[in-house]
Please model this.
Amino acid sequence: MTAGIDVALALVGEDRGEDRARAVAKYLVVFLQRPGGQSQFRARHAVSGPRSATLRRALDLVAADPSGDHRLATMAGALAVSERHLSRLFRRELAMTCGQFVERLRVEAAQTLLESGEEPVPAVARACGFGSAETMRRAFLRVLGVSPSAYRHRFRLADQRTAPWRPVS
Model:
């Protein structure tokens, strides 16, 4: 089954370009070209619309500036609610803490920069609010199970490789 997916993605890449094939692979939650032994990367974290207007505003604050100060106390103050109330909203509606949500959003922002840019990993870490490359590396390992450098390598080189079934001339 996975071999069929690999061939289909290679055909999409040939017909519509590697960017489209990469987008399809992410939508399907598979690698564009699978390396053996690694867990699959998840598609961009999508949160279905929270019922609470307060939580929607909190998510919008984080999404607007992933590198900003998004500590629980800071966000609660900006939203004029108690830390305890905001914490309960995150747990009840998203089944995660505020910190976990912020970390995932920052990882997703970093994924975008690693895929599309040439900035060094420490610069990407700072731009996404991690503070250091080591902090970003630990977050990537927790969320994706792979380091930022390995993630970049897999997604940056995918468009330079040829499909294994295609003859090389």
Summary: The longest helix spans residues 98-116.
